[in-house]
Amino acid sequence: MASFNRVILMGNLTRDPELRYNPNGTPVANFSIAVNRKYKQGDELKEEVSYFDIVVFGKQAENCGQYLGKGRSVLIEGKLQQRRWEQEGQKRYKVEIVADNITFMPGRQPGQDDAGTGSAPDEGDIPF
Fold first, then answer.
1. pLDDT tens, per residue, the chain with 128 residues
2. What are the residues facing 32 on neighbouring strands?
3. Which listed site, 54, 71, 85, 108, has its alpha carbon 20 to 30 Å from 114?
4. What sign results for the dihedral spanned by CA atoms 118, 58, 54, 102?
5. CATH topology of domain 7-108
6. Are 28 and 57 in contact (CB under 8 A)?
């Protein structure tokens, strides 16, 4: 039986990406995004926020580390992956999204205030 594992999310970074390099030198960036969902319950408009951990490798990881910051909007395409480990005798696991493609979305940039002013790089400065 075939399986399918594909995720597409658009949201805002909840923190700046953490860029590191694994032992073989591959760049790895980790960050989280918040995805908002608005819905109506009776006559009331409600909003629900979900948070997702993202991991990305290679050149895209370096670009994320250089150009992304808290509050920035992104479109993430990737797959769900579960990591398992043991910590202090307890089994732990975490589900995260391994991104294949990250698209930087226009909109509020890191360093901008609510009026939309600030000193963030232009969209044209991003090398992809």
1. 888 999 999 999 999 999 999 999 999 999 999 999 999 999 999 999 999 999 999 999 999 999 999 999 999 999 999 999 999 999 999 999 999 999 999 865 555 544 433 334 444 444 44
2. 53
3. 54
4. positive
5. OB fold (Dihydrolipoamide Acetyltransferase, E2P) (2.40.50)
6. yes
- Outline where the chain has alpha helix (H): 59-67
Domain regions of the chain by residue span: 7-108
DSSP label at 88? Answer: T
Name the residue with tokens 């975490």: 94
Token reading at 81:
């992956």
Strands, DSSP E only, in the chain? 7-13, 18-21, 27-41, 44-57, 73-87, 90-104
d(CA 4, CA 17): 28
Which pair of structure tokens corresponds to residue 111? 């360093």
